[in-house]
Amino acid sequence: MIKLFLGFICATALCVAVAQAQTSSTSTTTAAGGETTTTTTENYGTVTEYSPGASIVLSTGTGEPVHYKFGKTVTYVTADGKVIEASKIKKSSKVRVHYIKDGNDMIVDKVIYTDKD
Prior knowledge:
This protein has 117 residues and is of the alpha+beta class. The chain is built from one helix and six strands.
């Protein structure tokens, strides 16, 4: 009975760890005629490099840092949707980026600041 209980506890802990390790989500929209496909993705991590107006690099906990380029217009918001200044983002900030794949580039159009102040 104790072995069964310990096995259950270990399995539950493993499931929780896997669920919390998920750092990205993807959604795809296809037009009715199948002509237009847009894939938008979000990824979460810690800022390791940040060049306002140019690029951001995130450590997502999956190994290599992930490099993103900024689009022409980037919106900076808090987790509850309030618009903030780009200067709020610093190295070691926790953020979620919303980006679109363009060839080999990941072009960010929104940065969500998730640090608690």
